[in-house]
Please model this.
Amino acid sequence: MDEHRDITLAKKHIYRMTPQRKVILEEVRKMNNHPSADEIYEAVRKKLPRISLGTVYRNLEILSEQGEIQKLELTDSVNRYDWDTRKHYHIRCVRCGRVDNAPIAPMQQLENELYGATVFTILGHRLEFIGLCPECSKKLSCLKNNPPDK
Model:
């Protein structure tokens, strides 16, 4: 675990905080909806109209590597980004793709149990919950109760 932390700290010192990177980080921190790179790009363009999507993607990768933001690589979804870098879980709507924080504490015990039971060096774990957000649940419920005419 310390080796992973040391690598992260080493990467943190490689990149300086450019003006573009600073604006991208500020925009991610303003958004509470786990935005995609495209959504971040649209927000950043309001302040930096000449920035390219490629620049946003590269800087999101760097900010993620540095531990400034968290990159969410969710199943069947575009990568999303989270300003909250503490360990926590997410829940994704399988219909619309909305991502929220799952309101449960991280399961450190799971990593601890696996640590002695495998030859792998455990660096962490990902747990993704899937379901239907309230809006999609409501829409599906309405469709069940009132099927469209053929």
Q: What stands out?
A: Residues 86-150 form a domain with the Dna Ligase; domain 1 fold (CATH 3.30.1490.190).
